[in-house]
Queue: 2 jobs
Job 1
Amino acid sequence: MIDWSVHLPALQVIVPMLTAPLALLLRPRGLAWAAALAASLFAFAIAIMLTLGVLNGQTFTYQMGNWPAPYGIELGVDAFSALLLLVITGASALALLGGRRSLDADIEEERQPLFYAAWLLALAGLVGIPVAADAFNVFVFMEISSLASYVLIAGGRDRRALPAVFKYLIMGTIGATFYLIGVGLIYLMTGTLNLADMALRIQEVADQKPILVAAGFITIGLALKAAVFPLHVWLPNAYTHAPNVVTVFLGACATKVSLYLLLRFDFFVFQPNLVGHELQFSYFLMPLAVLAILIGSGVALFETNLKRLFAYSSVAQIGYILLGASLISAAGLTASVVLMFNHALAKGTLFLAITCLAMRHSGLHLNNIADAAKHMPWTMGAFVVAGFSLVGVPGTAGFISKWYLITAALEQGTIGIALIAVIVASSLMALVYVWRVIEPAYFGDAKPDAQDFETATTREAPSVLLAVTWVAALANIYYGLAPSLPVTLSSNAAEILLRYVP
Amino acid sequence: MDLLVLDLFHYWVFAVLLMIGFYAVIAKSNLIKKLIGLSIFQAAVFLLYITMGKVEGGTAPIIQAGIDNAVFSNPLPQVLILTAIVVGISTTALGLGIVVRIKEEYGSIEEHDIQEIDRR
């Protein structure tokens, strides 16, 4: 009997990648969607198996084609990548499961197989990054996922998506090319592309300029991809004008994958070898993180388009994740990785609820959703849960991540107090911008005309979408009350990241 | 000084091309010109990789009968760059496709015009 669990890291990427051309061929309506959903669910199952294995202390390494590590292509899964895999595949499966009706409305029927093929390629690229243990393969997966997500974002009927996607394409390609320059310079100095091997060999040349330049290029390139302030300008419009279900998928995981790579590269390759790199890392990124938190939340306060409002809130949340990492401590990194998980939950649920709203309301403008809670009590209920999770109300997943972040900041002494002030201030801002949606929805005084009032009971979103939204909302509560899974994975991830830091 | 410049000639080519491409991406308003700039920008990086695989006096890495002490150039960067070139071509093609769609929807490929139309 062959032990299949050995092949799980490879299958994780291969299943969605091979289903993509298949989805292209499935012509009758709905089959392509079914194929994409099946592949996503399968990938989700693999991610769960990998996570269970990692929790049991197993580490997965996989030599492609049986070529040994520094020469062949290596895949590897540890606690950090397992957590990312769960988030990505889970977001894809939930978005596809609930989003069929919404996608039918957004995508023309004859283009649907193409759209789902692009979706699967985006999924394959996104899961490929946490799985790959080789700097160049990461670049290839990054570009597969980016190219596919440009197609996804531009796939809808909103023409404003096109300039937004063009901007995203330009900035994303510059980011990826910067990363490629950095990797090239390191390859020039060390002659290896395998991350583990690179970390060892870079020691001998760590004092040389090209390595420092490479660190700069890689950090900036990945920061561009991850929408770190002030390189986030592509994000709000791209998320706002994308089809709603695509926003659910990408909003939950796309930038986190780049952040994952940024942390992994920095902590694995540069921190142990470059003198004083941890100080440079935190001096450079901490102010950016604080600015992202304050400005992202501040802009969200004044936005009136629902999706753009929460896109700016994503900019702030990316700031939180970076803030945790820039503390360079076990507690800080744990907080940062827990945030990746919990923010994906909260933001995914929010965008799912927004998709529900979009099924019944023509414009996602704050003025248009007055009285929404009367027609769609369940949708707004899920929205409130996810909104509270975003703010960090106790009992929701968001509280756990804020708690860990504040505990980590407290360890830092005086500067920690200032950071806590920033976190508390921006949590209050988050409460305000979430409330700006809840207030008109529940207490808005839009006067429904007679026929609207009669059909009020039938105006709830499609039941499948609603069920998926509630599953996600309940997950927010579940992981708020029983956070052991993300917390265990995150503290293991922090341990792995800090293992080599002096 | 002259010698230093000549010794590092390939790096100068890389840096100058990189900057030309980057300038076009940032400064040009025409979307096609932006994409061409992006291509130049990427091509510069391809050249960086290609030059670093070259070994002084090395030949193509092909094993031939009768020759057993040949010096080979490193083939790996070429393999990598082949992949990266494919990625670059896909990006340019997709970008041009988006420009065509923008032209269909907005009737212009000038950034200012598009922003102006969206603002209305």
Job 2
Amino acid sequence: MTFIYPTDSNKAHPLPLSPEYKSSIKRAPNKPLIPMRHTLSELTGPVYGHETVRQGDNDLTTQHAGEPIGERIIVHGHVRDEDGRGVPNSLVEIWQANACGRYVHVRDQHPAPLDPNFTGAGRTVSDADGYYRFVTIKPGAYPWGNHHNAWRPAHIHLSVFGRSFVTRLVTQMYFPADPLFPFDPIFNSVPDEKARARMVSSFDLENTQPEWALCYRFDIVLRGKNATPMENH
Amino acid sequence: MQDSVKPNGITPSQTVGPFFKYGLTPNGEYAWNDAFTSSTLTPDVSGDRIRIEGRVFDGDGVVVPDVMLEIWQADAQGRFADPQDKRALPNASFRGFARCGTDKDGNYSFDTIKPGVVPDPDGKPQAPHIVLAVFGRGMLRHLYTRIYFSDEAGNAADPVLALVPADRRATLTAVREAGKPLYRLDLHLQGDNETVFFDV
């Protein structure tokens, strides 16, 4: 028995072609996507146990010999479906720029320093309630060539699996009240204002650790299953 | 600490951007352990071992060096390594998932086994296929497609291929090289030979 996923939820996503984001112009399909019913191939999905994740993979500040430069932060939240159910055992992978806005990547030529104590990748598996937690460094904004004086708002990339191949999600977590929001075509590729707001984390004073780290909450919401299960054979 | 409030909607997708390699496809080039590789093969897996190779092109026919592809498939008996598939799984350690980044020339490859037959929602057989997700810079949401195989007679009756105009089905069909367990399928994100992508 599996469950079907309503496709209405997909309206929250960006349109493939968002011309303000120049890289989308030659990479978005011109032809309409072909709707299809979900089969077992779409309704099943990779399930990952803890063997994929090493101890400490969720702390990006302790992966090297020394302390990284920057503002230490905790990023935590729940992976839920849109019906509010926690999604347990879901692999969450993150990658990000360092505090100066520089990625460890051969093609990132932004003239900001690389930090030998920060390489910017982590992963964890959500617990039985769907809860996940990372310790990292607040990433910096960085320039990119999309338009004159283009800077990406500070963000952390997240990759999440959920229960089915159709719940697969890659998104970006932003920080509250970033002045770059109005100017960023990737953030603004999400047409609905409320949906855009769901990509912005909230400052979580209660879970800040005194004398050590600020805290941001980011709940990740995946597509929810229809109430009616589908029988299969 | 989990509240029971129903969220207002899903978290929107965003592009993986150009700089995902360290985190998602380090492949020995960066000092971060791979969560996944481009192979699904496990020592106990049964079935025909195959390799799928191809290149990825944009709307100008230029190779795309910064996409990530993920595959998900049944084993040779048509079973998924997912607790939602209640049928017995003969290949205990086979997962059926792999991930690959394209290289500077847009090349990708997967080593896997030929999947078996999976039923559609009406219980009718689907031709052997692999589902494929394409993530990349410039792609605000990943694209979903399928890989079929040129040497499968069942393609003619496949209910999903039947949704695709006949002149576009070749974009989903990996072509077997004579005498080798090797299939080739190029992906075109846009243009005259645009790959068929599905709305799921």
